[in-house]
Amino acid sequence: MLWETFKLAFQAILRNPMRSFLTVLGVVIGVAAVIAMVTIGNGSTAQVTADVETFGANRLMLSPGQGRMGPGSGSGSVQPFAQSDVDKIVDQLSSIEIAVPTSTSQLVAVYGNENYQTSVTGTNSGYFVVAEWTLSAGRSFTDSDETGKAVCILGATVVEELFGNADPLGEDIRLENISCEVIGVLEAKGASTFGTDQDDLVLIPFKTYARRIAGSTDVSMISLSMRDGVSTDRAVNDVTMLMREIRRIDPGEEDDFTVNTMEQLSSMLTGISDVLTGLLSAVAAVSLLVGGIGIMNIMLVSVTERTREIGIRMAVGAQASQVLLQFLVEAIVLSVLGGAIGIALGMGFAAVGAILLDIPFIPDPGIIALAFAFSAAVGIVFGYFPARAAARLDPIEALRH
Amino acid sequence: MPSDAQPPLIELRDITRVYGIGEAEVHALDGVTLRIETGEFVAIMGPSGSGKSTALNVLGCLDRPTSGAYNFHGTDVANLNRDQRALLRRNYLGFVFQGYNLLPRMSAMQNVELPLIYKGMSRSDRVERARVALEKVGLAGRANHDPSELSGGQQQRVAIARALAGDPQVVLADEPTGNLDTKLSIEIMELLQKLNRDEGLTIIMVTHEREMAEYARRLIWMVDGKVESDRLTVKGAA
User: Fold this and answer.
1) Tens-of-pLDDT digits for all 401 residues of chain A?
2) Crossing angle between the packed helical segments A232-246 and A83-92, to the nearest 10 degrees
3) Nearest CA in chain B to A400
4) Do A118 and A234 fall into the same domain?
5) Least enclosed by CB within 10 Å: which of A37, A378, B80, B210?
């Protein structure tokens, strides 16, 4: 009997394929949107996690001023750090393994006829450990380099812009008014989550940067690496306490510096993608609602068109519940078909999106099952009213129709 | 007439059917009392508005009387609810309508199978039963045709096969020749007569054509919701 009912539902749907398709279009769009968004969201979350790992999972960043990563950043004057702060952190805090100063300027690098605007960062050899970054060629800064020698290590993008395929090692490039020798090339890291090119930089020893480029020994940021096994909370707390002491901040006053962790960064980024996913899911929910109303509408039309058929079925002995089931199954089959088309379309969009956005394609079986269940629920909820209308018809009236 | 110990197939006692309320009240049936035995072929006639169609609807358990008693095989069925009446129709009654009322886009075979689906019969049983029923009405060769591919007379034969398929105790026919010309009407009436005579099928038929009513063995004449006369026809008396 149930099998007959399903067969009947398919026959009724296929009798008018164009109308059936237009009827379920709302469900198709809603489901496709959810599937595409969630799949792309999963991919970008995975990408963020991977990016944070390339950035250095154990890394903390200490910057002057408050809330640099939130709104209102950059307001008021900020007191920069000094080399002595870096030394104190390493000497006094057991939770911190390495601390390196970093200061950055946007400069034009020149080699021969080529010139290229890039960011030049003064730091020292500990930076490679903190940022978990290795060299693809050449060597790191030596102690002797760090006394203020004019040497530099180039990011992969800078090498390509200035040297093309030629070997940059041992060549001299000009940064502002200093000439420095290329001693190493960094392994390529690719684009960051924010879309910036992480390989677009030149590293020079911090002292060289302070003397020859900035003209001051101010440290604009300190990169820290936590000792293995130390909790992020403890490391942040230690650094905060020490810096408050060094910078003589009274109890009750706010910090005039910020410690950013990779966890914050990644949760902020995944937070953005969660908000987007939530918003789009709301849009998708509205679309499903509209789709459901579309199904209800066409089922009501269908009941009216088939009043005589309903009368005949009742005359030969169909009970109200059997008529109800027939129309309910038809609505459910319609909406589940719409859901299936939506899932296929959504996966297609997500696959294309993953390629365009350069993120991994991660289908989520849970959300696919949910989309199926949801489209079936739409069929039940919005199919019930028309089906009940059919079941309540009076057989004599229906036959007279 | 069988003995009183055996209840009649159908017994109506003082049946009324009232539509509307107050001033708009219409007494479609106004105290109908009659008995119909198994194996009878009854024609109900009367002017329009006499209540003959309402009587057939009540007899066929499509409608419910406002008051009175309706015993089917000795069981009171006047107060059954919708689903109980559906079960009664499914198991004991067959219908033939003026407008054939076949489902379009379904073959003759599928139409005949329809009541059997609701009986929960297996597919192979259904096909066999439907085949036998189509044979009885002389349409075995048209089993796979859609109603739109059949003539009016053939469509009505399919409808009769559908009524027979469930092996009913009574077939109720509402103006079965109303849409057919005289030649085809006679064919249909001869078919019904044959089924009554050879198979012992009980038939109750509403008609407004005297010639068609003469194929029955008993004629009930209704006026204003009442039975005015109830007699044997020429054939019934013969």
Assistant:
1) 678 888 888 888 888 899 999 999 989 988 998 888 888 888 888 887 777 776 666 888 898 887 544 444 444 567 889 989 999 998 999 899 999 999 999 999 999 888 999 999 999 999 988 888 889 999 999 999 999 899 999 999 999 999 988 999 999 999 988 899 999 999 988 776 666 788 999 999 999 999 999 888 889 899 999 888 888 889 999 999 999 989 888 888 888 888 888 777 777 777 877 787 788 778 878 888 888 999 999 999 999 999 999 999 999 999 999 999 999 999 999 999 999 999 999 999 999 999 998 888 988 898 899 888 989 999 999 999 999 999 999 999 999 88
2) 130
3) B99
4) yes
5) B210
Number of structural domains chain A divides into: 2
Please list every residue in chain A whose beta carbon sits closer than 8 Å to the beta carbon of residue B114: 312-313, 316
The pairing of strands B67-72 and A151-154 is unpaired
User: Are A316 and A238 in a shared domain?
Assistant: no
Candidates B20, B17, B19, B84; CA nearest to B57 is B17
Q: Where does a domain end: A230, A255, A280?
A: A255
- pTM for this model (two decimals): 0.73
Residues A374 and A332 in one domain: yes
Q: What's chain B's Rg over C-alpha atoms?
A: 18
| B101:A396 CB<8 A | no
Residues in A 281-310 with any Cβ partner in B closer than 8 A: 308-309
Query: CB B162 to CB A315 under 8 A?
Result: no
- A392 contacts in chain B (CB < 8 Å): none
- Strand pairing partners for A122? A103, A204
Give the span between the Cα atoms of A136 and B10, in whole angstroms: 101
CB B101 to CB A15 under 8 A? no
> B40-60+82-237 — its CATH code?
3.40.50.300
CA distances from A373 to A74, A340, A384 (A): 49, 11, 16
Question: Collapsing DSSP states into helix, strand and coil, what is residue A328?
Answer: helix
- The answer to whether the beta carbons of residues B202 and B170 sit under 8 Å apart is yes
CA B186 from chain centre, in angstroms, equals 18
Please give the residue range of the domain that contains residue A14: 2-51+267-400
Tokens standing for residue B39: 């194996």
ipTM attached to this prediction = 0.93
- Domain boundary pick from A196, A221, A255: A255
| DSSP result, chain B | ---TTSPPSEEEEEEEEEES-GGG-EEEEEEEEEEE-TT-EEEEE-STTSSHHHHHHHHTTSS--SEEEEEETTEE-TT--HHHHHHHHHHHEEEE-TT--PPTTS-HHHHHHHHHHHTT--HHHHHHHHHHHHHHTT-GGGTT--GGGS-HHHHHHHHHHHHHHT--SEEEEESTTTTS-HHHHHHHHHHHHHHHHHH--EEEEE-S-HHHHTTSSEEEEEETTEEEEEEE-HHHH-
Residue A65 lies in a domain: no
- Residue A74 counted as domain residue: no
